[in-house]
Design a protein that fits this description.
This protein is an alpha/beta fold. It folds into two domains: 2-172 and 312-339 and 368-383, Rossmann fold (3-Layer(aba) Sandwich), CATH 3.40.50; 176-306, 3-Layer(aba) Sandwich (Rossmann fold). It has helices at 2-15, 33-39, 79-98, 114-126, 143-151, 175-189, 206-220, 237-250, 265-275, 288-296, 310-325, 344-350, 374-377, and strands at 67-73, 102-109, 131-135, 156-159, 168-173, 193-200, 224-232, 257-260, 303-306, 334-337, 340-343. The strands form three sheets. The chain has a six-stranded parallel sheet with strand order 2-1-3-4-5-10, sandwiched between helices. It has a three-stranded parallel sheet with strand order 7-6-8.
Length: 392
């Protein structure tokens, strides 16, 4: 198996020295051209996003099912992570155990400490897991550990952000596209002029940095929009609320809009409400409390964008992982999906009138809209099949 990995690595090395090398004949050239144009366009893609041919194209799990999976989570301190864990424990694990394809999931938490996550991942490999899932991690810090896992025949799957290792398999929205749409929508909301505060996620993580780059580009599409400040909300409502409150208290000038990465918008809404600074538009993602606010205040915001619905994100990477263990052969390193735009009418149809702005739950977009439908996901595999129907 390592000979096959080495061959693919050599191909990637060639690809890195040419613009669109022959290596891409095994990769994005195998995908729907419309998907490639929309999501793999170099002008709208994080330059570090790995999009070469996957190292696991010819891989089959070293053990038969049921498989033991490791989930090396990097953080557990926000509503998004809680929603991922809930989907994993209440939906995914019971379903795949009943299918006879899963024995157990071993979960670790590293609390944003790269060294701890590296140690935990190596321990998972040594404990005999068949695959590892990571989330929202530093794009380069784990690469040596991903290689260590690959040497043992253990693929590593990254959701909601990529790893740059040639041995990782990544799935997410195209964050630069998503950020651009959010920034551009805010600029249009403000009539093309005004002062905007930008609230990042966790700087240094691929998902946050890619989306931030897109947001700034989207805002810059209107030359009379000025970014007057940037703070880190850490994808956590309480932290974002505190950071925005501090910024508002020390910056009394005119502020017309706030773009925030989701998992923190409810905290930003509270900060604005408590500041007495008026009804400043705040970008809204998938938190149900924030979507409830949008539903109850027509005209407050034109659109909401779903960038990483947690239940759908973990379902997508799980589907990708199971297909890979079954030998379906992922074609590319990164499986990308589109952000989902919701209008006011969409929000009113999805969110009940008696909703609560205090809800910490998240909207589920559904597999058909988040890349996990067979119609969409099959194109990313050499030997596509229904992973739930697998019989070894």
């Amino acid at each position: 198996m390592l000979k096959k990995l080495a061959l693919t690595t050599a191909m990637l090395a060639v690809a890195s020295t040419t613009t669109l090398s022959v290596a891409y004949a095994e990769g994005i050239d195998e995908l729907d051209p419309e998907v490639v144009a929309r999501l793999y366009n170099p002008d709208m893609l994080d330059p570090m996003q790995p999009i070469g041919p996957s190292a696991w194209r010819d891989f089959v799990a070293k053990n038969p099912p049921p498989w033991k999976i490791g989930y090396a989570s990097s953080y557990a301190g926000n509503t998004w992570r809680a929603a991922v864990m809930s989907e994993l424990e209440t939906s995914i694990i019971p379903e795949w155990k009943e299918l006879g394809l899963l024995s157990e999931v071993v979960i670790t938490q590293s609390n944003l400490n790269d060294s701890t996550q590296i140690q935990q991942m190596r321990q998972l490999v040594d404990q005999g897991v068949d695959a590892i899932i990571v989330c929202c991690s530093n794009p380069t810090a784990l690469n040596a550990t991903v290689k260590y896992a690959a040497d043992q025949g253990v693929p590593v799957f990254s959701l909601t952000g990529y790893l740059t290792s040639e041995y990782s398999v990544n799935s997410s929205v195209n964050y630069q596209v998503a950020g651009f749409e959010i920034g551009k929508d805010m600029a249009e909301q403000l009539g093309g002029k005004g002062n905007v505060l930008v609230v990042e996620g966790i700087p240094g993580t691929s998902g946050s940095d890619s989306q931030h780059r897109g947001v700034l580009a989207g805002l810059a599409s209107a030359p009379d929009i000025s970014v007057v400040g940037t703070v880190a909300g850490m994808w956590t409502d309480q932290i974002a609320q505190g950071e925005v409150q501090k910024w508002l208290a020390t910056n009394p000038g005119e502020l017309n809009g706030i773009v925030v990465q989701s998992a923190a918008e409810m905290g930003v809404l509270r900060a604005v409400q408590q500041s007495g600074r008026g009804d400043i538009p705040v970008a809204i993602g998938g938190e149900l409390g924030a979507l409830c606010y949008m539903r109850k205040n027509p005209g407050y915001l034109n659109n909401s964008y779903q960038v990483w619905p947690p239940a759908d994100e973990i379902q997508l990477i799980w589907n990708v992982m199971m297909r890979t263990l079954q030998g379906q052969g992922p074609k590319v390193q990164s499986i990308l999906v589109d952000p989902v735009k919701l209008t006011q009418a969409d929000v009113e149809a999805l969110i009940p009138e008696d909703c609560s702005e205090d809800s910490s739950d998240w909207l589920k977009v559904g597999a058909d809209r988040w890349g996990a439908s067979a119609t969409y996901l099959d194109q990313f595999f050499l030997r596509p099949a229904d992973p739930r129907a697998y019989k070894p």
